Amino acid sequence: MVNESIRLSAQDWARAALKAIADGGLAAVAVEPLARTLGVTKGSFYAHYRNRDELITAALTEWAHSHGEAALTELAALSDPARRLRELLTVVVQAVQPLAPSVHLSLLGDRNDSRVRDAVHEVNRARLDLLTRTYQELGLPPDRAASRARVAYAAILGLLHLAQTDPDGPDSAALAEEATAVFLPS
Fold this sequence. Notes:
elongated; about 70% helix
């Protein structure tokens, strides 16, 4: 059902495209199905974007912004590195929902697209930089801090991947506690 009174923004379309990407990668981004999902005509799309590629670029920019450095600002501002790491791990682990699609993991199937590569790199870099800085502030030398950050981040991505296929995983509070025990140096 199309509702002509709905006024969507370019950001509404970008967010709908991100949901489609999470569900099926870049191939799932198609104007007509998105318009149906949003309850509008294709004309709404063309009021904001010239073509599908512009929408994909806008969606990837939105994702990189909302999951990269800008998303980490509040955590990065915490002066106590142990608290910062504990809260970062808790936030990430609690965000992992069983059987929920993931934009990040879906994008890996399209990693040969330069736009995807750039967006994933931007998000990964922001997260790894914050983790590395945190481990350095906790007393690890720079090389070990960078290695520990990579292992912690790999575990986080692994939890995301596992959650997509395992509806019976432990609750997020238990996972957050275990992640903190494993990745917070004593």
